Amino acid sequence: DFNSNTSSMEDNRKGTERDSLASKFQSSVTKKAKRNEKKLAQKREIKIPKKFEREFSDGFIISARKKSLHVSIWDFGGQEVFYSVHHLFLTKTGVYLLIFDMRELLNEGNRKETLSYLSFWLRSIRLHAPQQPLIIAGTFFANIQNSEEVLVIDGLLKGLTKTNFPQIVGNAEDNLMFFPIDHKEVIGISQLRNIVEATIYNSGSSEEVPLKWIALLDEIVKKKKGNAYLTLTQVRNLGLSAGLSSIEEQDAAFELFHVRGCVVHLTSTQILKNLIIIKPQWLVEGISKLIRDKTLHPFNEDDIRAAGLEDDLKLMKDNSIVSEDFLEYVWEHDQVAFFVDFMQRTMLLSPWKDDKYLVPSLLNSMFSGQGSLRGFKCIFDFSSSFLPIGVFQRLICLCVASAYIDNKEYSREPTLYANFAEIEFKPGLVFRLLEEKELERISLFVDNNNPKSAAKAYSMVMSMLRKLNYDAFGAGLRWDVLLQTSSGDLVRYAEAKDEKIFPWFENDIQENLVGAQNVDLGSFLDSL
Q1: Are residues 450 and 355 part of one domain?
Q2: In the chain, how many domains are there?
Q3: Contacts of 327 (CB under 8 A, 6+ apart)
Q4: For the segment 449-497, what is each residue's pLDDT rounded down to a tens digit?
């Protein structure tokens, strides 16, 4: 919580914190600075909150309180499943702080993994918030031996980002692209705090709104005590009391609160629209009740047995398929219809037969028969940009949902792995999808005994990628298309189109692409 009291106290500091890179490595100055820093902290009676509240302050967007900055923390438990719902939490109006352990980059055994992790977060932030400022901070500065090690870390970060991240806010004072800090020894904290505050106030994300909107937000915040969500009717009544008399103005206020992260309000279906989530952590925890790391957070099998759901649990573990009864159990009969609709619309869950659902994120078996795949091949290549976690799983969701609509009784049940799917949409239209994470690409294979289905398969997958790009990735995904010729060569889409490469241009592919932007998911699937 960077509040005004802290800001004024920081202004009164008299140079006791070592902020220049050179002085940070003079041992005598180091010891003295640490002692003085601690004494000053005690003298100023800095109050550390007993816990972090997982909710937004009522002053979150109130421009009148310009000297107050409040930070909310949501706990994702380190689970990769939440990488698939970044679009709900990484907003285009945020200022981002990426924190890493400097020791991990100096440890050659951990360096590759740490760089990969940093690269993922850098690219994810750029994907969802390409214009927003990004500040990088390295922790455990007191454990760093000398300035050369800091420069090594800086060089690794510069090599990782190159010129692809102009939104990074650099450390001009130390001529670094990151801010070395140490919380325990209170090193670099003042400098980072000032940079965060200055970046937020200079980011252009402030917006003037009517006072009655603020009054409405204040009333919503008051309801957080004891409530994770409110119904649309409840919030509309609050809006009327605050002076927002028209539905149009209320909806505009709700949209702003959603964009700014004060609430989560999805409007793609009536079920979703009817619920306004005022504690986003409730949504996070709801998803994690179903999708979680089974080794870290196993289900209580005694409770499962008592509920008579042993077979349902086995079905989920073995096939990633969940029954309606199992969903009622994990969500404790609370807003089950909302969660099912939410996960369908975010393409984390798709209908299966017999009132069951497929959850692709729970698939963990890996397909290893890549060398045996045959047929006409098309590659969707994301290597020039980024293939985020969740793209392939959403693609499986859309494929299964489409097959379910076309043929409620599958003539051949899909074969599904974490990185592979073979799906029959109708007799004569079978295709296989393979994700290759290291190469950052998804390959489509179509049986070569039915060349007429190649163009149809391509148009379906391309339409699905465009749909999930608009709905879940802010239209930020970029990919190239390579099509295989009859001789086995791979050529780019434009060349294949110009030369009418067989079998991909038996029909005009572009005319077969289904509209994806601002289209309801059900209507989209019907039109494939």
Answers
A1: no
A2: 4
A3: 290, 336, 339, 340, 357
A4: 777 888 889 999 999 999 999 888 888 899 999 999 988 899 999 999 8
Q: Assign 327 to helix, strand or coil.
A: helix
**Cα angle vertex 194, ends 75, 66, to 5°?**
80
500 part of a folded domain:
yes
Question: 287 lies in a domain?
Answer: no
DSSP string of 171-207, one letter each residue:
BTTTTBSSEE-BTTTTBSHHHHHHHHHHHHHHSS---
Digit-coded pLDDT (tens) for 195-214: 998 998 887 777 789 999 99
Q: Establish how many alpha carbons lie within 13 A of residue 421's alpha carbon, considering only the half-sphere containing its beta carbon.
A: 25
Which residue in 266, 261, 244 sits closest to 253, CA to CA? 244
> For residues 392 and 475, what is the distance between their CA atoms, to the nearest angstrom?
16
Q: Name 72's Cβ contacts closer than 8 Å, sequence gap at least 6.
A: 53, 54, 55, 56, 57, 261
Q: If we measure between CA atoms, which residue out of 65, 51, 58 comes closest to residue 7?
A: 65
Which run of H or of E encompasses 420? strand 420-426
Query: Which two structure tokens, joined as six digits, stand for 1?
Result: 């919580």
Side-chain half-sphere exposure of 406, counting CA atoms within 13 A? 19
Place of tokens 């009717």: 233
* C-alpha pair distances (Å), 152 with each of 12, 99, 134, 136, 165: 34, 17, 21, 15, 19
Residue 447 lies in a domain: yes
3-state secondary structure of 356: strand
What tokens appear for 399 in the block? 């494929």
Whether the per-residue pLDDT at 377 is higher than 90: the answer is: yes
Beta bridge partners of 180: 138
The whole domain housing 521 covers 370-527
- Indicate which CATH number applies to the domain containing 505: 3.30.310.200
